Amino acid sequence: MYVAAVLGAGFAAGGAVPAFLALASSMGGGRALLLVAAGAVLLVVGGAVTDHLRWRWTRYRVGAERVELHTGLLVVQRRRSLPRERIRSVDLTANLLLRLFGLVKVRIGTGENTGGGESTLELDAVTRAEGERLRRVLLDRAAEVPEADHRDGELALLDFRWIRYAPISFVAPLLGAAAVGGLFQLSEWFGVQHDVIEWIGERFQGAALLWLVLSVAAAALLAGVIGALGLWVEMWWNYRLEREPGGTLRVRRGLLTARSLSIEERRLRGVELVEPLGLRLCGAARVDAVATGLVKEDDDRHADHKTLLPAVPRTVADEVAARVLREPAPPTGASLTAHPAAARTRRLRWAVGAALLPALVLALLGAVLDVQALLYAAAGCAAVLVPGAVLLALDAYRNLGHGVSGAYLVTRSGSVRRATVALQRGGVIGWTLKQSYFQRRAGLLTLTATTAAGDGAYDVYDADASEGLRFAAAAVPGLLEPFLERAE
């Protein structure tokens, strides 16, 4: 109830100022102030009373077999339950306001994407002690984990030197563009947009247009870098990755909003080492979990459920991946089989074709319309895009690879976003073989390992056809052999 009252007061304060300014001009300051104050009081009291009634009619129970939640007011009531044996996650989150009152939001999920939120129960909010108790009770799998496999404790701890990787991502320019757009939108709301534009014009009076564009871009990028640093601090403050007794990986992090995310090890099928181009050039990578039953609904709010480690030096990422998988050496660092030169040719063909397409369109328009400037633009476009496309294609070919490392199947691909996946061989439930007409002529094959974990399918692109089939048969014995014809 107190949380609802504070939230209501915040909304009332945010709307009171523009409402007062709008009413004061028509009915006078005194009457406007009285009317706005009455509306604010009504909003705060009404929100608090509604929230109090809602929680008076909310009940939950943890039974031997099911977790039940009863909600609703008077006529509209809802009863839901989840079987305890199907519960796969109990995650705790608490924004700054909940933390001030010692509360947390508990999200109990089965990891099934049934739609409509039927695979999750949310308790908003309970005391932190009660949230921790629910998490321990519902994720207690001590009897299901072999005692010999226990290596509990801290797997990774926050190192503030990792913050140097925060600006090296697409987030920084996006935040910079958002800052510029927000500035102009805010100035328009207050009716001073013309003044802002005039002030900028005065600062760059007499300067070249190129210098003006570069200066604005630099200012936006600086704002984006500052925003990216702040976002990183908010997301990863007090980060800690640990393995708890009973076989549960727990990630705790967050400055303003504290988060506690749990993944059962029995659901873990591997890890994915993600290296966007900027991070890879700096020798960094992040680690994501490849696990069954991760929450797939409401992705906009829970897209970071699978992230076990933020961007860190590549060696650290490999070490943490090995600790998570209980392996002496990281499978993500294993030597991989290179792909044939025909795979490089395919990538060069795609890249050059994609880069020449806009140039060809401009050249065609220039020829049809007899506009010389379009022909020059086409030549410039080709001169700029083709070399970059060739470099990306060659890099994508160098990054192709696959292999077997102990109990794990390893595949790597990508250039702008290079991903190295170490997938448990026992977690592969099927193979999909794809071969286009051009792949058949080049002797190539694309293998897709199907699994119930992670993205559901992981590809080995453009492998040698014969070698790829042998690899698939050896990686998961008995799965592909019935469909192979071996030469005498």
Automatic annotation (TrEMBL):
The keyword Ligase does not apply. Keywords: Membrane, Transmembrane, Transmembrane helix. Residues 55-136, 397-471 form the YdbS-like PH domain. It comes from the Bacteria. The chain crosses the membrane at residues 32-50, 165-187, 207-233, 350-369, 375-394. PANTHER family: UPF0699 TRANSMEMBRANE PROTEIN YDBS (PTHR34473), UPF0699 TRANSMEMBRANE PROTEIN YDBT (PTHR34473:SF2). This is PH domain-containing protein. The lineage of its organism: Bacteria, Bacillati, Actinomycetota, Actinomycetes, Kitasatosporales.
